[in-house]
Amino acid sequence: MGACYDGAGRAQRCLPVFENAAFGRRAQASHTCGNPPEDFCPHVGAAGAGAQCQRCDAADPQRHHNVSYLTDFHSEDETTWWQSPSMAFGVQYPNSVNITLNLGKRGLGAHALSLPHWGPEAGA
Q: Which segments constitute the Laminin N-terminal domain (predicted)?
């Protein structure tokens, strides 16, 4: 019957197995870096460390960071990520980005969506 039910079939407290509900799903982003090509400088390392700037180019398979990277297979050997347009060089458009991810399920209350954030804290 499973770990969430006792021998009599009654529901009991349990922790279901983690499932990456977003893996392989289609994601959409209102804005993505690289069109036109641009530099971006992720915030990495200790405070005051030099910027580690990189180039984002939507037309270059080695330098794009499209939205499909939000739901691809995680590999330590080949790191991929989605990248929004940079605001590092005084560009203030867009000032927000919308991400849509259809998990193919109703009642999202049983699922959690966690997106890591590598930018400065809000209001910083």
A: 10-124
